[in-house]
Amino acid sequence: MQYYHSLINGKWEEGEGSFEVTNPSNGEVIASVSKVTLNQMKNTIDAAHSAFKTWSKKLAIERSRSLFKAAAKVREKAAEIGTLLAKEQGKAIKDAEKEIIGAADCLEYYACLGVNILGEVPPPNAMNLRSIALRQPIGVVFAVAAWNYPVSLISWKVAPALAAGCTVIVKPSRETPLSTIEFVRVCNEAGLPAGILNVVSGENALISNEIFSNPLVKLVALTGSTETGKEFIKASAHTVKRLMLELGGHSPFIVFADADLDRAIKDGIKRSFRNTGQICNSVNRIFVEKSVYDQFVKNFVEGAKKIRIGDPFENPAPDCGPMVNQSGVKKMEEFIQDAKTHGGRIECGGKRPEDPKFSKGFYFEPTVITNVTPAMKIMMDEPFGPIVAIDTFSSAEEAVIKANNTRYGLVAYVYTSNIKKAGWVAENLEWGNVAINNISPDSLYAPYPGWKESGIGLELGHYGLDQYLEWKNIKIEI
């Protein structure tokens, strides 16, 4: 069994006590991660703050070169890190390696953007005065990795923060810490100065209490649940920290009668069950125009039944792997029971697979629910698993009302061949991202906002870099 520790100021330090990491495919323990102590947390923050004084003063091109070197090293180690990710998270090995390559792309993208941080020269308010508006790095950043895409989503934070001139303390998820730790290790091996990029693991309460009470930490970046985000908002008040929160989603998938139904069904199945539904932009609620509802359901269910579940290292790769832990499986069972209680019909799935080869892992069959009502949990709460409900609508207005009837607002999907209809629906959806006739809502080059209870701040695009910069106005008498 492998043992992992925290990286503090360029040195790997063992903490006190440890927690185990389990392979969700078979329930076996694959690694142990030591827990950081309170003194180690304080030392990590002090080291990051000290390193910030030099890193922030480097020329932007110097920071850029460091990020390019880190990206090259991550790309070189993609298979190695991807294997760890597949073992601890359960996604297919090809998808895991793709995630690592995407993290390298992210490092390169912000390496480019980091040399183009521009200020302004506002017009003067007096003839003898001039203003120079600068943007400077905010300081020490605490970045929390999500367990479903632990390398990709942490790169969305680490890359812009380092490019801006900030230093970073990464906290991996307890469910999938290994690939995050390896990502940080590889970036440091590429030549980052000590203290620039640190990683700590351990008890959430101990780490969070020190982070939120320590004034040296200036920004907290999280991808996680809405409930965790709300706790972070409360905790940040004491020292008025800046927050960047990408939280829950409960994505609607709207299909009009004039859509390419074959394409909509294929895309809907993929976005509903990819990574076993454990994605913040996964489809949970499908709304289909009444005239094509029966045909859509029939073909969608047939497609869902063909999804092959399996171990992430199978060849060919499975369509669906295990859930990340046993509690996820229990949560799915609760959603199913609630749907049945409210009259829902389980068209396929709805249970753990019966094949004995899956008995030791955390597997759950891809599930489709019809005859849904607004009172069902599946229509109100994000399952974060392989469950999707299909409902109907009669007009564009009704589709929008149903889609907006949730506290979330991250990603919505619309399928129609009518561009005027698509435009009207997109503008009236209360969602930060709307994908029309596609299931690729995020891009390195565009903002990825969450509306309502799906987040605060922005990731990706040049907007993602802006989160880690402060404005300063310097007024000069001439």
UniProtKB/TrEMBL annotation:
Keywords: Oxidoreductase. Gene3D superfamilies: Aldehyde Dehydrogenase, Chain A, domain 1, Aldehyde Dehydrogenase, Chain A, domain 2. Its EC number is 1.2.1.79. Transmembrane segments: none annotated. CDD domains: ALDH_F5_SSADH_GabD (cd07103). It comes from the Bacteria. Residues 13-474 form the Aldehyde dehydrogenase domain. GO terms for molecular function: succinate-semialdehyde dehydrogenase (NADP+) activity. PANTHER family: SUCCINATE-SEMIALDEHYDE DEHYDROGENASE, MITOCHONDRIAL. Belongs to the aldehyde dehydrogenase family. This is Succinate-semialdehyde dehydrogenase (NADP(+)) GabD. The lineage of its organism: Bacteria, Pseudomonadati, Atribacterota, Atribacteria, Atribacterales. The gene is gabD.
